[in-house]
Amino acid sequence: MKNMTEGNPAKLIILFTIPLICGNILQQLYNIGDGKIVSEYIDELAFAAVGMTAVVSNTLNGLIGGFTQGFGILIANSFGAKDMNRLRRSVAGSIILTIFLVIVLTTLGMLFIKPILITLNTPEEILPQALSYVRIIIGGIIFTATYNLNANMLRALGDSKTPLFFLIMSVILNLGLDYIFVRILNMGINGAAYATVISQTICSASCLIYTFKRFRNIIPLKEDWKEAFNELSELFTTGLSMGLMGCIVNIGTIILQGAINSLGSEIMAAHVAGRRVLDLLMIMIFTFGFSMTTYVSQNMGAGRLDRVKQGVKAATLTVTAISITLVLICLIISRPAVTWIASTDNMNIIDNGVMYCRTGVYFFVALGPLFVLRCTLQGMGHKIIPLYSSVMELTIKVLSASILVPAIGYLGVALTEPISWVLMTTMLFFMYIHYINKEAALAV
Q: What CA–CA distance (Å, rounded) separates 153 from 90?
């Protein structure tokens, strides 16, 4: 456990963030490696199928990750306030709600995935592969949820290193199984899906065992399970706010994906490759947002508003400096990276993938503060305001899919998110100033 209510804010946030950065880079490298294996040993259609179904699985995973991160806010707040009874009740309630969430998402996912893919204008030549792949992934949601719940509980207690260790194990196992199932056993795209589910199963089970052996003081007692129902309302609303935020953003991405699919399989492949490069670069800044959720939650629990303001300033300066550096890195690596990931010499795919990367990275200076401010407001307990920014992003993606993309093609896709980042950061900045001053006035 790591108490983030004492010590230098900048140092605490950076040290907490480093394992998160490593873990997310590792996850993106897995996505790149997985795509490389599929494109290398199957074909470009399979590569496009895996890439386009990612928006669906990411929506489900985002909802799970958001809910469990929301649960972590209450756990971190209880830890900062040194209220172990409430902490154990929060853990019990988090487990109950996670089980319920898994049942709902698995059932709905299996029932509606085919009409969703059809609605997304999935080309007929890749629909069978996409459908087969994503159904296997949906079947493994329970293991994704188990890992996310455990990882977010540990992070709420200030431990960002342990989830990294289990993620490393999962990624190594996943890539190994990918190669065996796809290259050696010729299981096709289904082999890649089974590799993902098996590795997640082992990872989630290992993390669960570790958490309940290492942190026995957070294990709910018999009376905690009974009293957990008193915490369910707060846990659910906080988790719902975080989950909906990710879900709304991903719904917008799904709608935008439909517009991308209408541009043809080459643009789909370009987008998959370009997006993976941009996602890898983006890790360096969005993880600071995750860190701020824990940092702010613990300090709000301890009544340290002064440390909240210090942390926001330190994190914003850090992500801005990183964003400027990432622009230079992207200009250097984007073309060879897109070419390698897509495993192609098709210049239409390569040029569009590179254009997407370079257009987005210039706006990272707005995206970094966006993550910091959004997660700070969540950590302060403001559940609705961050949702406004997500609704704004959804609206912009819908307008882009219906107006911008038909008018200027794939360039419209590349411009969509940067436009939303600038608008949302501006809105959240003024909201943060308003609420931090309001909290300061109440503390007097």
A: 10
The pLDDT value recorded for residue 314 is 92
Cβ atoms of 311 and 9 within 8 Å: the answer is: yes
Query: Dihedral (C-alpha) 411, 416, 419, 424: value to the nearest 10 degrees?
Result: -170
At 362, list the tokens: 């210039």
CA dihedral 200, 203, 208, 213 (to 10 degrees): 170
The percent of the chain in helix, strand and coil, each rounded to the nearest 5, is 90, 0, 10
How far apart CA 144 and CA 91 sit, in angstroms, is: 18
Residue 370's closest CA among 282, 307, 298?
282
Q: What is the DSSP string of 48-64?
A: HHHHHHHHHHHHHHHHH
Crossing angle for the helix pair 44-80 and 141-156, to the nearest 10 degrees: 40
User: Which residues 6+ apart lie within 8 Å of 247 measured at CB?
Assistant: 59, 62, 63, 66
Tell me the per-residue pLDDT of 85-138, one tens digit each, with 9 for 90 and over: 888 999 999 999 999 999 999 999 889 888 888 877 777 777 887 888 888 888
Scanning the structure block, which residue is given the tokens 């709902």? 104
Listing DSSP states for 115-136 in one string gives HHHHHTT--TTTHHHHHHHHHH
Helices then strands, counting H and E runs in the chain, come out as 16, 0
**Range list of H helices, 183-304:** 188-214, 222-227, 232-261, 265-301
What is the C-alpha to C-alpha distance for residues 285 and 12, in angstroms, rounded to an integer?
Answer: 16
What pTM was computed for the model? 0.75
| Whole-number Cα distances in Å, 289 to 22, 82, 393, 425 | 15, 24, 17, 13
pLDDT, one tens digit per residue, over 246-273 is: 677 667 777 777 788 788 878 888 888 8
Q: Are 382 and 437 in contact (CB under 8 A)?
A: no
Secondary structure of 226-253 as H, E, C letters? HHHHHCHHHHHHHHHHHHHHHHHHHHHH
Task: Give me 68's structure tokens.
Answer: 């469990």
pLDDT of residue 249: 67
The residue ranges of the chain whose pLDDT is under 70 are: 1-2, 32, 39, 41, 43-44, 51-52, 246, 249-250, 386, 443-444
> 118's torsion region: left (phi>0), alpha (psi -120 to 50) or beta?
alpha
Q: 């969703």: which residue's tokens?
A: 116
Q: Which amino acid is at 432?
A: Y
